[in-house]
Write a structure and sequence with these properties.
single chain, alpha+beta, Aminopeptidase, eight-stranded mixed sheet, four-stranded antiparallel sheet, binds coenzyme A
Length: 392
């Protein structure tokens, strides 16, 4: 078996045949059109494969994005389409690719790696990945409730050429999102089995909603705009297809869609992780110090007015991190040490992921001094939301 490497342009067809065999057998969809930003010609370096005798039999893709949340800008890589040919499994190929991906993400300074999985949670846990706090709620909305949503604004399908700029403006007003180029917005607006609707007032788009009925994405995968616009959009899309409850995805923190749904009597909700097409959200910390430095704007505001210090030592990597907070200042010191400093609190990569991203409070994970627990429980967890439209 060869080392993991980037796919060559002439091998793209073979790679897609592998991932379609593993993920799309019996499904009338194709991985290259379901995830056009992942399998794009400019992303070939991020499609990692293992082959033998010229035949590719294992694959994992990375898609690099920037996450904006709580005033922080975090470069992250989303991992997608991890697959080994069924006849060549349990020979270490996928593990080898995942280790190669972790090295690549660390080398380019990503804050963390992110993926969603159902069946392969334990495969990833062996490699230092951990399930973290929830991504949001899926409200399950009965089509019969459509009549409860007023429709003050006219609703129509998107006209990409004229509407896209305004949709970008609305989305970029959101406090939490992945950044996208205009070309990426355009591609996501045209995903298969997915429609974008807009609501207008006096010729100006006041809101939009994306509704998907695909194997990998089902329900209202993104929305934005005023409450009047969202109400009009829901009234238009809810009644079809008859009889089925529609998943409407929302972030955990307060937001206008949750307010609108609960205000109209829609209270049935499940964590996104157990909704159709979602999966568990897993994170791999690459460098704890790099991550904490990138979280500094959020940590500084959450720790304002208090002082403390904690030393952490990551078991698998030997990374030593010293986090100090004092008034308006947060400092992250670090080094790689071979011998453990006595005062440092040891933790595994998986514990580090839960410490930062939850769902628990840090004091439920580590045996901390009172001062450290007080500070860390205030600073974490750092919850974040990825819109379903961006899922890979
Ligand atoms: C998950 C998958 C990619 C693993 O590929 P692979 O090349 O066989 O992986 P490795 O040989 O590196 O496996 C390493 C270890 O993980 C374990 N493992 C593999 N798949 C696992 C799973 N689904 N759950 C738990 N452990 C798993 C293996 O048992 C192996 O350990 P062992 O040989 O000591 O028992 C492969 O099983 C696959 O293609 N599955 C279907 C697609 C899928 O679910 N992908 C993940 C979607 S997010």
């Amino acid at each position: 078996m060869e080392e993991a490497r980037a796919v060559r342009p002439e091998e793209l067809g073979q790679t897609l045949a592998l991932v379609n065999k593993v993920f799309r057998t019996g499904v009338d969809q194709d991985m290259s059109t379901d995830y056009p930003l992942v399998f794009a010609p400019n992303n070939l370096d991020n499609l990692r494969v293992v082959s033998e005798g010229g035949r590719i039999f294992s694959h994992a893709a990375m898609a690099r994005r920037e996450l904006r949340e709580h005033g922080c800008a975090l470069p992250v890589s989303l991992i997608c389409a991890v697959a080994t040919d069924p006849e060549r499994r349990r020979r270490g190929a996928a593990s080898r690719i995942m280790e190669d991906a972790v090295e690549a993400m660390a080398a380019r300074g990503d804050a963390f790696g992110l993926l969603w999985t159902g069946p392969a949670r334990d495969f990833y846990r062996r490699l230092g990945w951990e399930v973290v706090g929830s991504n949001g709620w899926a409200y399950l909305v009965d089509p019969q409730l459509a009549g409860r949503f007023e429709q003050p604004l006219p609703v129509r399908p998107i006209q990409v050429e004229t509407d896209l700029e305004r949709i970008i403006e609305i989305h970029e007003d959101q406090p939490r999102r992945l950044t996208r180029t205009p070309a990426e917005y355009r591609t996501l607006a045209g995903l298969p089995k997915s429609e974008v609707w807009v609501a207008e007032e006096k010729g100006r788009v006041e809101g939009y909603l994306v509704v998907a009925r695909a194997y990998n994405k089902s329900g209202v995968t993104e929305w934005g705009g005023t409450s009047r616009a969202l109400s009009s959009l829901l009234a238009r899309v809810l009644p079809e297809p008859a009889g089925e409850r529609m998943q409407v995805f929302v972030p955990l923190p307060d937001n206008p869609m949750t307010e609108l749904l609960t205000g109209r009597g829609c209270h049935t909700r499940i964590p996104m992780e157990v909704a159709d097409g979602c999966g568990l959200k897993m994170v791999r910390i690459l460098s704890l110090a790099n991550l904490l430095r990138r979280l500094a704007p959020c940590l500084t505001s959450r720790l304002a007015g208090c002082a403390g210090r904690v030393s952490l030592s990551v078991q698998e990597t030997g990374e030593h991190v010293d986090l100090r907070w004092d008034g308006d200042n947060v400092e992250v010191g670090s080094d790689r040490c071979t011998s453990r400093e006595d005062s440092a609190q040891e933790l595994s990569l998986r514990q580090a992921a839960r410490l930062v991203f939850g769902p628990d409070k840090p004091s439920q994970i580590l045996d901390l001094s009172r001062e450290a627990a007080r500070g860390l429980d205030r600073a974490f967890p750092f919850g974040f939301h990825i819109w379903m439209l961006d899922y890979v």
